[in-house]
Every structure is written in structure tokens, then in C-alpha cells.
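Progress narrative, work stream C.
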Amino acid sequence: MITDRPPRGATARREYDKSDGLVTMPLPPPERMQELTRALVEAMQGEDTAPVRHAASEVLGALAAFYGVPVPSLRILGVRPHKVTSGVCTYQLFGDYTPSTQRIRVWMRTAIREQVSSPKALLNTLLHEFCHHLDCTRLRWPGSYHTRGFYTRIDHLYHLALDTPLAARRPLRWIKRGEVWAGARS
């Protein structure tokens, strides 16, 4: 995880700083999120996108209801867009969010081997894109920057959904690298 560079404009910088400082948020009831996560994991056992889309839509619907925001539309797509340079995969897109349409897209197949991705990877991507949606709709932060706070909020949702015991969680540790922060697990 690498944060975005802080923007230069004063308004955008205020949004960035607010996002960076917001490391906690209310969390939905764990039982329902864990039930929906188990359904998503089960749906990913097959090769078909339709059950995955249904299960992921249920996750998004529950989150949207809890946070009081519109349910974003969702597309589950195949092989991740990627770039190969000199025989090495140098870039791949796991998912994205379009604020103007409130649409999330998530790719469920790995870039090179074209295998169904791990359920944890897809869940993390889905939650990442939902947090962009939350930034834009509930918090009214149109830039939805990748900040330490943004990644920490995703982390809280992710561990809630997976029912990770507190003692088993490896906290995020941030290292300053020029203008950005790089996150690592302790």
C-alpha cells in the first residue's frame, strides 16, 4: 500500500488531511457481514461470475444500508487488466470506482494465469472500492484519496468481515518515503 501524494490545492489538501486523520468509523454488525462474506467465499468456488456478483452485491447492499448511502452498481469482470514489460507483470488493476456513476468494477481472475482470485483478494478489493464510494457519498470527499486513514478504514471492515481475532491481526505500520507513506504489516 502506498498513499497518494498530498495534493497542492488548499481545498483538496484539507480533504486529504481529513481522510488521513479518519482512522475509525462505525462498523456494521459483525454477524451479518461475516455471513455475507462466507456466501461470497462459497460463490467464488465456481467459475461463473453471476453467483459472485450476487454475493458481492449483497455485501454492498448491507454496507450501503448500514452507512445510509445509495447502493453502488457492481460489475464483476474476468481477467484483470494488466501490463507486462520484459516478461514481467508490472501493473494489474484489481478494481475501480467511478464517482459520477457510483459504479464499482471488480475483476475476479488473476492477470497472468487467469485463475479465479482468492476470496480474500476479491473481498479486499470490493471493500476498497466501497470505501471510495463512502468517501464520495457519505463524507463528501470527491477526491477520495488513498491515505493512511483510507487504508486503515478498509482494514477495519476487512477484519470485521473475516472475523479475524484481534490478537491475530497484524497492524499496519507506515514508513515515510518522500511525499508518500508506504504501508507494511508488522
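Work stream C, second folded protein:
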Amino acid sequence: MATETVLKSPSRPLYRPVNRTAERIFFGSMAVLLCVVVFIGFSPTYFRAGMLRAPLPSPILHFHGAAFTLWMVLFLIQSALISARRVSWHRSLGTVAFCLPPIMIVLGVIAAIDALHRRVSIGPLDPAVSLSIPLLGIVCFTVLIYAAWRTRRRPDAHKRLILLATIGLVDAALGRFPWNRMGISPAGGAVAGLGMLVLLVVLYDLFALHRLHRSTIWAAPLTFAVGALAVPIGITPAWHHFAAFLDRSVGRFL
């Protein structure tokens, strides 16, 4: 009886070896860039206005602004700890930092509905359409931050998901850039800015791995799609009915 031999090809690593120095430079630089974008976008109404002393139209916005600012500070510190190779400090602080997203999510939803109830409009958009931008952004952040928590033991996936979740948050700052001075519509400028930030993550993967990381494959399109499609979703009759329901059932209590 003939003996059959099964030949197995040696398993290949899923990704090429990563240059750790380039990795630290990229993620650290992205943290700095996102903090700069947030500062520029919210500088006139929040940071240069005194932050907690800023004349915001609703008290909830002070809590909202403080929580989201703290997230950006923690994001920058965590990136700096990795760059300094203080991994144990990074993990210890990360345990505390992950207590913040649930608070941000609740405050983000309340602030968005409060703005709807006060009939706040973003540019030429009516309040119901304006609601779609922060509310859908919070949904995207929730999905990505939960995935980041699930992959906290896999640094390659974790850091990409945290970065893309934060890029999604920065979309609010991009919408407040002085695009009109550049001859660009605020909506077009915000989408273009978001697309460029997401593209940087994609290009880094192609440079460092010669392919897209599995987390980037689904999280990058999701982050961009939510930012780009929020307004088209917001102008639909179904969304207007949903916004009216939120205003009647929740907004009147804020």
C-alpha cells in the first residue's frame, strides 16, 4: 500500500516585520496632529474663550467639552508613553482611560439632542439634519471604541482602532474650520479633511505592512462613511421623523 505524503507549505507571517521606530513616529505624530486639529476647530468658541468659563449656551456643553478634551489629552499622553517605551505605564493608564468613553458617549448623545431642542443649525443645515452629524459620529465612536477594548491584548489592532475612533471625533472640529476663507464649503472641507486623516492610516499600513491591517480594512471605511454620509442620511424623511421623536421624548427634559 502506497504511503501518501502531505506536503505543507511553511506558514507565512500575516504581516511583514514592522519598523518599531517608524511605528512610534507615525502614531505619535497622528496624536499631535489630531490635538492640533481639535484646538484649531474649537479655539474660538471654547479654548480661547476660557474653556470652563466659555459662554456656552447650555451647561451640558461644559461637561461635554471637558470630557472630550480630556480624551484628547489622554490620547496624546498614551501615545507619548508608547514612544518612550513605557508600556507598563501605558497599560495602567489605559485601564483608567477606558472608563471615560461611556461618559463621553452619554454626554455626546445628550449634547446632540439638547442642540436639536434648542434648534441649533450647523451652517445652512436645519436642526434635524445637523443632529445627524454628532449623533451618527457617536454611534461610530461607540463601535470602534468597543472593538478597541476587545483587542486591548493585540496592540497592532488596538492602536489602529483607537486612532480611527479619535479621527471620527475630530470630524466635529473639522466642521468648524474657517473653510469659507479658503473658498471651500464647510461640509466639503470637513469631509475632505476627514478623508485625508483616514487616508494617512491607510497609507501607513501600505508602507509599513505592504497590505492593509484587518482592523483598517473595516474601521477606516466606516469612519469615513459615517462622516461623509451623515448629511445625506439626515435629509431623509425617516431621519426627520426620528429627530422629531427624540425632541418630543427626550429633548423637553433637557
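The radius of gyration is 21 Å. No further action is required on this item.
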